[in-house]
Request: fold
Amino acid sequence: MNTQDLYIQNSLTREKEKFEPIEEGFIGMYVCGPTVYSDVHLGNCRTFVSFDVIYRYLLHLGYKVRYVRNITDVGHLTDDADQGEDKIAKRAKLEKLEPMEVVQKYTNGFHDMMDVFNTKKPSIEPRATGHIMEQIKMVEAILDNGLAYESNGSVYFNTVKFASENEEYGKLSGRVIDELMSESRDDLKKQDEKQHPSDFAIWMRADETHLMKWESPWSIGFPGWHLECSAMSTKYLGEHFDIHGGGNDLKFPHHENEIAQNMGACNCTPANYWIHTNMLLMNGRKMAKSDNNSITPEQLFTGDSEHISKAYSPMIVKFFMLQSHYGSTLDLTDAGLLAAEKGYKRIMEANRYLQAIENGGNGNEDVEEKIGTLINQAQADMNDDFNTPKSLSRLFELVPIINSHKDGKEGFSDISQQVIDKLKQTFSIYLFDIFGLKDEFESEGNAISSKFSGLMELIIDIRKDARTEKNWSTSDKIRDKLQELDIQLKDGKEGTHWSLN
Ligand code: AMP
Ligand code: ZN
Reply:
């Protein structure tokens, strides 16, 4: 593995693969967005924060990225398959709202939460209801290719035929199709419209009471849940694009069926790389309201929950998320959050001090070499499947070096300005551009340190003028008074620098 190249754990092949874009310099990335029928939960936030860091890192590498993240506002049924009510319509009845009011309400809430977590907006955020025509066209293409059939106004994807012709079906989720089929044959009687129980709806006939429905060649109905992502990714990224992402729980049936639909429509696999984020747990167990084992983002921010000892700010929660790899489960615990709070404050404090250093020394080979190695490792870690915890740990290894400079420890205050500038740049790029953190204490700390730096520049300037005018009494007075305050002035070829003793 070359640490200069980006490697991605591809869920499709289960291999860590070197990333090669289809078109040099450009990346098309599709991520399944939320179904907007209720408040966004912390698990969703973990997934979208993970993809935000991936998006930011790809931008950092210089790619022009088209990041498409959809809003599911129709077709996602309560059983996550072809049974039950539409999740949005169910909520609309419950809240006595128009379905589109439900969609707007929870889309707004989702956007607000994404802002709270300081994530970048996607390039395109298409809605399923805005792409009914594209979905109908895709159903037609799959029918034309003989991989779907109409039954009683609904259209089903023929999984048996597809699987018999194509080895791809089951590859992503690792489901053994033979098993699926023998098991399904037993259930055949139960599902009279389907030729086979593993077939799934790509168009569903709506009954009279159904709230969201459209005309189609087959019936007044609505698209199957999986279809929107196939249709919208094709529309905005083409039939074949670079990256497709989502949470682990979407591998089957959603993503497996998405691949089948794309193959069924154009005989092309949609994405080269599939990235799946792992689930958020709490206290070692699945987060579930029914189990009294859940917490909302708001409860975290206010501290209003029996599961936590205090409130945690959004950036602390985000920092906590970054401290685990997107592909591992993340276990939310009070102890973990407390540790994240300490870490976050420590690194932000070091960064604030670092950004204000303007008095590089004559250089120290050992320390500078160590700094250079850690900076390179931080990048190598991100290149290794976006390993944020490892990359962060390199920055943490740099913190004692920065603090030793602050304490004026021998060797450390000699670091050259050039290396300090590189360090400044690294911290600023990683913490803010790539990880998308904000310094929540910046206003206080930075305002003071930038004012302090400004004042010091002014004093150094006045002293320089005094010296030019051979006004030794003023220049000595400034130096002596600063010395009393433990502020050291160093005159060099490139001017005068100051340091705190
Ligand atoms: P949904 O709104 O349920 O379609 O989910 C939106 C995204 O959040 C999908 O990519 C899901 O896989 C992901 N997601 C749902 N639950 C969790 C969880 N507990 N941890 C991490 N991601 C999740
Ligand atoms: Zn999707």
About this structure: Residues 182-190 have pLDDT under 50 and may be disordered. The first helix runs from residue 42 to 60. The pocket of zinc ion (ligand 2) is lined by residues 32, 229, 254 (CB under 6 Å).
